[in-house]
Write a structure and sequence with these properties.
The longest helix has 35 residues. The protein has 2 domains: 201 residues, von Willebrand factor, type A domain (Rossmann fold, 3-Layer(aba) Sandwich); 125 residues, no CATH class. It has 383 residues and is of the alpha/beta class. Helix content is 49%, strand content 12%. The chain has a 6-stranded mixed sheet with strand order 3-2-1-4-5-6, with helices on both faces. Helix 2 packs parallel to helix 10, helix 8 runs antiparallel to helix 13 and helix 9 runs antiparallel to helix 10.
Length: 383
């Protein structure tokens, strides 16, 4: 018996030594509990929007504020000063047109960096009656989406709605605890009175994962301030579009989609179209899957390997060298145009700041941006 106890003591002491050694090593490489290695960081956002009858205002805000939100995300910096990969997913829930067997939930778009796709899907949303099951849609998004396993990445769910957070067969606590296990922060946005949202468990849902609870006035219209720089940025957007050279099976359709999303943005006025143009001047707007300029910056072989029938009309019949020269020319034009848009954007923001009397704090874009910036600090992001 004594020998057996002695063996256990030795085993315990050895295990303790290993643990202390590992702790010492970690203390050297990650002093004072420093944040994880920031290299190659991502920002992943899943937007879970209630599309029941009463949510027309919420969907309108999402459509009209998308590019303002993207522009803020594009300003983020990783801990090492590099730019993060930005991916956005979109769900709708609470709509009677959706199958009851699936909890009245639909994956509208998986996590993607294709911002035109997100815009297209947003503008395709319509509202209709429904049962809003928050726990169900949160759990579904956690299971379906390709969330990163890296502790350095910022992974966030934003769920917006106006019915009690407790509805549905999936308890919200179970869903939020699953999010916590996956290192995903759940942020809740109640469309209505702040106190009512607290009473109906929206705040409790956010608290479980250390997320942010917010309330907004979903029927408030987005306010745009026209500036002296808008006309020029709008004209530069037209020039920018002409630098895109589609390729591949779906290239032409994607190029047409780009134009359609310009038109969708313009449906809220020139100032909103300008917000989109500014987004298109940032690194976040990248279309390597269908644009030769972006694709060639990743791998120049795409210029030589794309078959002639999958090239735009102006490039058919070109030699390989002519192709390269043409793509390089368009690339240089794009860089020049994007640089000018960025310069004008700085002046535009200064003008808006000087001419804004009061900050609108009760709308979707402000709620999202504030929560993202607040929670991004824990992953060593900065603005």
């Amino acid at each position: 018996m004594k020998a057996l106890i002695g063996k256990h003591i030795l085993r315990y002491a050895f295990g303790t030594f290993l643990a202390l050694s590992a702790g010492a090593a970690n203390a050297n490489t990650n002093p004072e509990g420093a944040d994880p290695d920031p290299k190659g960081q991502s920002i992943m956002l899943a937007l879970l929007l209630d599309t029941s009858n009463s949510m027309d205002g919420l969907i309108d805000q999402a459509k009209s504020q998308l590019w303002r939100i993207v522009n803020e995300l594009a300003q983020a910096k990783c801990g090492d000063g590099s730019k993060p990969d930005i991916r956005i997913a979109l769900y709708e829930y609470g709509n009677d047109r959706l199958p009851s067997s699936e909890g009245y939930i639909r994956l509208v778009s998986p996590l993607t960096s294709d911002l035109d796709l997100i815009s297209e899907k947003l503008f395709g949303l319509t509202t209709n009656g429904g049962n809003e099951y928050c726990g169900y849609v949160i759990r579904t998004s956690l299971r379906q989406l390709d969330w990163s396993s890296s502790k350095a990445d910022l992974k966030m769910i934003f769920i917006a709605g106006n019915e009690p957070f407790t509805q549905g067969e999936v308890p919200y606590r179970v869903a939020c605890e699953l999010a916590q296990e996956k290192d995903v922060i759940v942020n809740t946005i109640f469309c209505g009175d702040h106190t009512e949202g607290v009473r109906t468990a929206w705040k409790t849902g956010a608290d479980i994962t250390g997320g942010t609870y917010m309330s907004i006035e979903q029927n408030r219209r987005t306010v745009y301030i026209s500036t002296p720089y808008d006309v020029r940025i709008d004209a530069l957007n037209d020039e920018l579009n002409r630098t895109y050279l589609y390729y591949g099976t779906h290239g032409k359709a994607k190029k047409e989609l780009q134009t359609t999303q310009d038109q969708n943005a313009a449906s809220y006025g020139q100032a909103n179209k300008v917000e989109r143009a500014i987004s298109k001047s940032t690194y976040a707007y990248k279309n390597s899957s269908w644009d030769l300029v972006d694709a060639a910056r990743d791998n120049e072989k795409v210029i030589t390997e794309t078959s002639e029938e999958q090239l735009p009309a102006e490039m058919k019949g070109m030699t390989i060298e002519q192709r390269k020269h043409y793509v390089q020319k368009k690339s240089a034009e794009r860089s020049r145009i994007q640089k000018e848009i960025q310069e004008l954007s700085v002046k535009r923001q200064e003008y808006i700041k000087a001419n804004t009397k009061t900050e609108n704090t009760a709308m979707l874009d402000k709620a999202l941006i504030d929560a993202i910036k607040k929670e991004a600090k824990s992953r060593n992001f900065s603005w």
